[in-house]
Design a protein that fits this description.
Blueprint (H helix, E strand, L loop, with lengths): L1 H9 L3 H4 L2 H10 L4 H12 L13 H14 L17 H4 L7 H13 L14 H10 L1 H13 L7 H13 L3 H8 L8 H11 L13 H9 L2 H14 L11 H9 L8 H9 L16 H15 L6
Helix pairs in contact: 3-4, 4-5, 4-10, 5-7, 8-12, 9-10, 14-16, 15-17
Length: 313
């Protein structure tokens, strides 16, 4: 439906393409994940569906999530703020939401430049309890964390919406901060640290399924989703270039990879690609239990690629 809609939009007048209310209805009715992103837009921007005023307390954050919607669903590209015109989405959000994309990016960078947390150099083996505490005590980080936790509340958990929120959370911070949060650790049996880690990493709402899917199914489901497929392709090509897809059906090849020390690039680009997987099914906890013997090797390979942090230590 969105492919047809996009073709329609490219041939219609500006007045028609500005009909963001119509796009909103299309988005809500589409079975492609768009509704979950839109629900987060409404939640973070505090939109009244029947009203026409922008009630967003955080206008910068509101605009940022709108651009995330437009990036993931290009049909909304005319409903995002540009430097040439007011947001056409002002039919829902009001004139306060007319900041252009470059201004948003600069403003967010300015906010983070004033953050003490963003000035810290990344070091391995930071505890998640310390990282969580530092984020809460940092005004900029705490503001973003609060928005994310609001959507990912266990009491009203919607997995897709929570994944959208955690995607927004990690995309909207400097790379150094994202590293600190992604690669924090806990030493058993520190329950407080593990609870802090769950908060930072979206557990249970964003990454836990009952029963847990097989890692093979996770990758296959990801490849059927356009957004996830792009992130997986980037992650695979950046971190695991030597792991050829031809190897997936070759038992001897798989055994060699799994038994050997599977090297990955471990570059900054690889870390960024790994962090970019937040908010997709690639970060879902998965298992290799109860699988047919023929699938075990491939499952172990996928589990290692998706969840092992040995590449980054």
């Amino acid at each position: 439906i969105f492919t047809v809609l996009f073709m329609y939009l490219t041939t219609t007048s500006t007045a028609q393409t500005a009909d963001c209310l119509h796009l909103r209805e299309q988005c809500i009715n589409a079975a492609n994940g768009c509704e979950s992103v839109w629900n987060v837009v409404e939640d973070l921007c505090n939109i009244s569906v029947l009203g026409r005023r922008c009630k967003a307390e955080d206008v910068i954050g509101c605009n940022k999530i709108i651009h995330m919607l437009a990036d993931e669903y290009p049909e909304f590209k005319n409903c995002a703020c540009t430097s040439d015109d007011l947001c056409s989405i002002t039919t829902l959000l009001g004139k306060q939401c007319s900041i252009n994309k470059d201004s948003i990016s600069m403003e967010i960078k300015l906010q983070w430049s004033l953050s003490a947390l963003s000035k810290q150099a990344y070091t391995a083996n930071r505890t998640c309890l310390d990282v969580n505490k530092e984020c809460v005590e940092d005004e900029v980080c705490n503001k973003q964390l609060s928005l994310y936790l609001k959507v990912c509340s266990v009491n009203k958990c919607n997995t897709e919406e929570c994944q959208t929120a955690i995607r927004f959370f990690y995309q909207n911070m400097p790379f150094e901060v994202a590293q600190i949060m992604t690669f924090c650790e806990c030493i058993e049996p520190d329950d407080s640290c593990h609870r802090a880690k769950e908060l930072l990493h979206g557990k249970p709402c964003a990454i836990t399924a009952v029963p847990p899917p097989s890692c093979v199914n996770v990758v296959h489901m990801c490849e059927e989703n356009e957004l996830c497929r792009k992130k997986y392709t980037s992650f695979h090509s950046t971190c695991w270039r030597h792991v050829s897809k031809q190897c997936y059906s070759d038992e001897a090849c798989l055994e060699t990879l799994i038994k050997g020390d599977m090297p990955c690039s471990a570059s900054a680009d690889c870390k960024a690609a790994y962090i970019s997987n937040w908010g997709t099914m690639l970060r879902m906890e998965c298992t290799c239990q109860n699988l047919p013997t023929a699938e075990q090797r491939l499952c172990q390979l996928f589990h290692h690629m998706l969840h092992s942090k040995s590449c980054f230590h």
